[in-house]
Fold:
Amino acid sequence: DVVVIGAGGAGFSAAITASDAGAKVVLLEKMPNVGGNSLVSGAEMAAAGNWVQKKLGIEGDSVELHYQDTMKGGDMKCDPAVVRTMVENALPAAEWCRDVIGVEFQEDNLFFFGGHSKGATGLDFITKFSATAEKRGIPIITNMKAEELVRDASGRVTGVKATMDGKSYTFSARKGVVIATGGFAAN
Structure:
């Protein structure tokens, strides 16, 4: 039903969410290991009004302040709609990581560099994402480089052409393709 390209935090999130919605999913990763940049990240998450702030008695933070700080941090060049979506969904995303994926956040530690709550490490996130995907039976194919989107006559994306060890593969996607390949730097 769904092909997800990229097995970092975003790709795992998309694959698990699609699976939980009843879709048959496959996750493709060009590297020999999963994780991408999420693996080497510090795993900090900015989420205004989170449970750690409440536990520590920290007041005055808000989604609106998070929005303003993010816009300022991006020299006001950010897409306001994208930033708004991010800040409004940050706390639910952190709660999902905690409650569904099993990420253990430090309950008494906050960092003040744009983020509010902190997970252990990127490795912790990816290890738990991998375990969650495995429990759901989501195939993860590493060393599989997505090369081209397949389109039907109307232009709708219906799959992905990929390569592994010099061989070509086509993955069909009845319900969609999610591109979660991170930045362009290593393209």
